[in-house]
Amino acid sequence: MTDYVRPALPKQLFYDAAGNVIDYGNRWHDRPGRMPPEDTYSVDSHPERFAPLHTVADALIEHLRQNYEVTVEEGITFARELLKPPDNVLRAVRITPANPDGAPLTFVFTSYPGITVHAGLLHDFPFPQCGCDACDETPESIADELESIVLAVVAGGYKESVDPGAELPIGYQLASDTHRRSGHTRIAGYPAERVAASTTQLRSLADGWQPWLQRSTI
C-alpha cells in the first residue's frame, strides 16, 4: 500500500475591484475579532478558485482504487445518492469497498466548482461548505478537510446513527489522528424509506463502519 499524496495544485492569483491581489485565507486577520465586513456575506467573487478540488478528488479516487479492494463505478445517476442532488452535476463516482461493513463513498463533481462526498448511508459533506467571501476559504484548506474526512471513513473512523426518540435523530461521528467532527440533524427532509433501511443496517454496525480492506501487493 502506498500513502496518499496530494497532487501539486496550481498557484492562483485573483484580484479585487481595485486591482489588488486578494490574499484568500488571510483577508480578515487585521480586523477586530477577525470579523469580515457585513457586505462580504453571501458574496462569492471568485468561485473558480475552488477548481483544484476536482484534482484533489480525482487523486483520492485513484488512491482508493489502487490501494483498496473496491468497486469503482462512474455515472451521473450516482449523484442521486445525495440527499439533495444539485442541478449542476458534472460527474459522479461511487466507490464501494469489498468489505460489506465498510462505508461506501460517492464523489459528486459540480460545475460550481466543488465536490460533495456522500459517505455511508445518510450524510453528505460539501466542499466548500459555503464559499462566500466572508468565509475566506482557500482550496488548500478545503482540500485538507476533504482528504481528512475521506481517509477517516476508509480507516474505519466513521459512525452513523439513527435515534428516533431524539430531537435530532440522525447523527454521525468522524475521527482520525488529526481530525474529529460530529453532528446531528432533524429527520425532516430525509426520505422515510431511506431512514428505515439505514436504521436497520446501522444496527448491525454497533462499532461503526469498519476499515476498508487493503489491496494485496503480492
Task: Provide an overview of this structure.
The structure is a single chain. A 5-stranded antiparallel beta sheet has the order 1-2-3-4-5, covered by helices on one side. Strands 6-7-8 form a 3-stranded antiparallel beta sheet. The N and C termini lie close together (11 Å). It is built from 3 helices and 8 strands. The chain has one domain. It has 218 residues and is α+β, with helices and mostly antiparallel strands.
- Work out the number of β strands: 8
Percentage beta strand: 15-25%
Low-confidence stretches: none
Q: Give the helix tally.
A: 3
Structural class comes to: alpha+beta
Mean pLDDT: 94
Major sheet summary line: 5 strands, antiparallel
Distance from first to last alpha carbon:
11 Å
Strand order, main sheet: write it out.
1-2-3-4-5
In short, what is this structure?
It contains three helices and eight strands; from the N terminus they run H-E-E-E-E-E-H-E-E-E-H. By secondary structure, it is an alpha+beta fold. The protein is globular and about 55 Å long.
List the defining traits of the structure above.
218 residues; alpha+beta; five-stranded antiparallel beta sheet; 3 helices
